[in-house]
Design a protein that fits this description.
Protein name: Poly(A) polymerase
CATH class of the largest domain: Alpha Beta
GO molecular function, one term: tRNA binding
InterPro entries: Bact_CCA-adding_enz_type3_sf, NT_sf, PolA_pol_head_dom, PolyA_RNA-bd
Pfam families: PolyA_pol, PolyA_pol_RNAbd
Number of strands: 9
Strand content: 5-15%
Family: Belongs to the tRNA nucleotidyltransferase/poly(A) polymerase family.
Largest sheet: 7 strands, mixed
Shape: elongated
Helix content: 40-55%
Number of helices: 22
Distance between the termini: 85 Å
Length: 414
């Protein structure tokens, strides 16, 4: 099969890299691999330009040096050298075979055999190669078939592929959410049987896969299947799926591309997540710690519970905006919509047109009224602000306070 490569795969920088490597290893010693070839065949946007080569990492570096191309040994022990040309980066990985695997990392040796390299990859549709002339190579004999059929299947024995790296369980679901019309039954069964292997994966790797999966519109039914088969209970331990809440993530995906908001909805599919976002500490806190979620993200999630409790307690909307910020109040509106199906357009329109009040007084105003710098000044400023908030940010509160201060004798800040 031969393809017409898009301009993005045929830039001057790309040609420079291919020319440099072929000068060392001969014509055809380097090919595009994986995502770019798969997406091109499936008629999808192409963005990643990973390359495979028959050259060893040392020879790759020598070839790039000879051509004056800057390069970085980003993963040389595993065969990967990154070339940088005109601001474009190219991950160039030597063909490999696995010598030893432990479910997380592999010890590799290098080969010149394209079929050996293909057989160690995860899914058939990812084991496709193309040269700079557009000729496609399918060493497994099943990659083109699966790409055209939109099927995500493990290469060879599914259990063997999974045992080599248990992260492939999550990759199976991620690629299925992105490319497949349904989950391959044999691959799914293997993932379920070996789901215990997820326990040994780092929180960072789990979070990375979850957030990547949440980027796809096909994610909700895939996540629901992961909950139903017990996969999610290994990723988000202590959270119990609530089938009644199965539509929460679907609604969120349909309304926003914000990955963190989608992650909120994923957590809210569990009863414990409901409790968490209603302002109560729950098992979700432990889950976020396990996944090594950033403090910024954790604070964003916690703010929803704070805002929700305030609004449920009768807090005026403008006061919530003032106290907690527009972003937190907007997040709460999105999550309420996802959880209940309530109208979203109306609340968002109100929020967009509602201005956040700005407290008009500063320490300088009070000092001009005769209060010297010191603790009393700060206390007075806070008291006036609290009164102003309590009276719906009325200017009359400010005017009255300043009038009273101006009538008072000079007060020392001591």
């Amino acid at each position: 099969m031969k393809l017409d490569l898009p301009a993005s795969m045929h830039t001057g920088a790309t040609l420079d890299v291919f020319t440099a490597l072929e000068a060392k290893g001969g014509a055809g010693c380097v090919r595009f691999v994986g995502g770019s070839v798969r997406n091109l065949i499936m008629g999808l946007p192409v963005s990643d330009f990973d390359l495979s080569t028959q050259l060893t990492p040392d020879d790759t570096e020598a070839a790039l040096d000879a051509a004056g191309i800057h390069h970085i040994p980003t993963g040389k022990a595993f065969g990967t050298i990154t070339a940088v040309v005109d601001g474009e980066t190219y991950e160039i990985t030597s063909l490999r075979r696995d010598v030893e695997t432990d479910g997380r990392r592999a010890v590799v040796s290098f080969t010149t055999d394209w079929t050996e390299d293909a057989q160690r990859r995860d899914f058939y549709l990812n084991a496709l190669y193309a040269d700079i002339r557009g000729q496609v190579y399918d060493p497994t004999g099943k990659g083109l078939e699966d790409a055209h059929a939109r099927v995500v299947r493990f290469i060879g024995e599914a259990e063997q592929r999974i045992c080599e790296d248990y992260l492939r369980i999550l990759r199976f679901f991620r690629f299925s959410a992105a490319y497949a019309s349904s989950l391959d039954a044999e691959s799914l069964e293997a993932c379920v049987r070996l789901r215990y292997g997820i326990d040994g994966l780092s929180g960072e790797r789990l979070l990375q896969e979850l957030t990547k999966m949440l980027a796809y519109s096909g994610a909700p039914p895939v996540f629901n299947r992961m909950w139903e088969t017990g996969i999610m209970s290994r990723i988000l331990p202590a959270l119990e799926y609530d089938p009644v809440q199965s539509a929460v993530l679907t609604r969120m995906v349909q309304t926003t591309g914000d990955i963190e908001r989608r992650f909120m909805a994923l957590l809210a599919q569990s009863a414990q997540g409901q409790v968490y976002f209603n302002g109560h500490v729950s098992a979700v806190t432990d889950v976020l710690s396990r996944l090594r979620v950033s403090n910024r993200t954790r604070q964003r999630f916690e703010a929803i519970g704070t805002v929700r409790c305030a609004l449920d307690g009768g807090y005026p909307l403008r006061r919530a905006l003032y106290d907690y910020g527009r972003d937190a109040v907007t997040d709460e509106a999105y999550l309420t919509h996802a959880q209940t199906g309530a109208d979203l357009a109306g609340p968002i329109a109100v929020l967009e047109h509602m201005t956040v009040p700005e407290f008009p007084l500063t320490a300088r105003h009070l000092m001009a009224a005769g209060i010297e710098a010191g603790p009393y000044l700060g206390q007075t400023l806070k008291r006036i602000e609290a009164d102003w908030r309590a009276h719906d940010f009325s200017q009359s509160v400010i005017d009255r306070a300043l009038d009273e201060l101006n009538k008072q004798p000079k007060i020392s800040g001591e």
